Structure formats: structure tokens, C-alpha cells
Amino acid sequence: HVGAGSDVAGTTIGVLFADGSESAATVVGATADYDLAVVKVDRTGLVPLVLGNSDDVVVGDPVVAVGAPLGLEGTVTTGVISALNRPVSAGNSSDTAFINAIQTDAAINPGNSGGPLVNAAGEVVGINSAIAQPPGSLSTAGGSIGLGFAITSNQARRTSSQLIEKGHATYPIIGVLLDQRYVGEGVQVSKDDQGSTAAVSPGGPAERAGIRRGDVILAIDGRPVTEPDELIVAIRAKTPGDAVVLRVRTASSERDVRVVLDESATG
């Protein structure tokens, strides 16, 4: 289930099933950082879809998107996997989710969010999350332009397990602030603190690896980054405790740095 602003653990909501019946359900946990929530419903006889391995997805794979665009329940659209590892942000300015997304040309319209993206074997490989809008668009009410995005099934599996076990999700961090105004190659670690938040967290992963204020991060695990969101998304696709290799440029050198990711809790 894709999270909504009202999805707070313990909240009771209604769930409408395909046969038209409705049951009360409880929100087990939700996280705006991954745009996901887990909902529990006490009902027997339910057969869940198989959650596939999104790491096996390749560009060109046929997929089916299921949802209720514009309130039209049970709508199915078809397409292919257009791209992988797309950095996408969803939500509003106060609750922004950073998603390492699957891109598909299957028509995804408002109301599709939360529906499954299914492969040819009938396995869920993604959860439909966002639709790209034309430049200058101020609303998500427009129709599909062939740029739909889905949270990977593996990310959904990791996050849902945390929500079920702990009631909250965690995400990995390197412990730096990024300069959103920087316009050069790569992304730059901020030179200045923001209020009580240090540009480089003392004792954090980045500082332990020798990263300093003003350093420029050019790539993560060999994958170039050109925008702050790209780096954030690539890190959040990992798990706390994982190690990544950052290509870092300082004032005097350029080198590869191994960074072990720390854990930060989210709501």
C-alpha cells in the first residue's frame, strides 16, 4: 500500500475488496520516506499475489499495471519496463519520498498509486507510486504521458518487514548535508551547517571515511551522480550496514572511498 498523509500506525481504515465487500483494517505502520504503509485486515480466504524479485527485472520486460485510475476499479494497462534505477521523488514538500524506481510506459493515472506492477509470470515486481507530469504542471490530475514509476518489490519487502516487526522503517545514511545550490559536476557536501545539523555528522559514516565539508561526490558504486536526489535515492536503495564506494573529489585529489552506511529511523 502506498502511504497517504493520514496513514498513522493504529489508525482504522476501510478496505474495499474486488467482490464489493468492505472490511475494517488497521494501519500497522507507515513511512513517508519510502511512500509505503502496511495495512492489516482480519479476514480469511485471501490469496496474496506473489512478491517477485525486482533485481531480476530487465528493460523490455512486459508488465501489467493494476489500479483504479479516476475511480475506475480493476483497470489493467500493459507496457514494458522502460528503465531501472530512476531517481524519483514523490509526495509533498514536507513528506518527500525518495525512490529508486522502475520506470514503465504502462499507463499510470491518478488512482493507480498503490496498485501492483506485475510481470509476465504474475509476480509483483513493483508498487505503482508516481506519474511524471509535463514541465510546468502544477497538478497530478493529468493523464498518463507514458512515464510511470513504481517502487521496487525488493524495497517494498524490506520496508514492510521493518514496519511489521518494529512499527517503523529505517533507512541508510552517510551523514552529510548536500548543497542544493551547487551547479558543478557531481554533488557537493555542504560547506555550512544548517541550524543544529552539521554539514558532516561527527563520527558518522562520511567523517569516518575521510569525507569533509565541500568535497564533491562524483559517483556511487561506479554509477555517476549529477543531482542530490540521485545520491539520496541510490543510498536509500541500500540497507544499513551495507558498504558503498563513493568517488570523491577534494580540493587536491580524486579518490574512491568506502563508506559503511549507518541507520536512521523514519516515522
Tell me what you see in this structure.
The protein has 267 residues and is mainly beta. It has two domains: 50-166, Trypsin-like serine proteases (Thrombin, subunit H), CATH 2.40.10; 170-265, PDZ domain (Pdz3 Domain), CATH 2.30.42. It has helices at 153-166, 205-208, 228-236; strands at 12-16, 22-31, 36-41, 50-51, 62-67, 75-91, 96-104, 116-119, 123-131, 148-152, 170-173, 187-188, 216-220, 223-224, 243-249, 254-260, 262-265. The two termini are 16 Å apart.
Quick tags:
Pdz3 Domain; 6-stranded antiparallel beta barrel; globular; 5-stranded antiparallel beta sheet; single chain
> How is the CATH topology of the largest domain named?
Thrombin, subunit H
Question: Helix count, per DSSP?
Answer: 3
**N- to C-terminal distance:** 16 Å
Q: Can you identify the CATH superfamily of the largest domain?
A: Trypsin-like serine proteases
| Beta-strand content bin | 35-45%
Radius of gyration: 20 Å
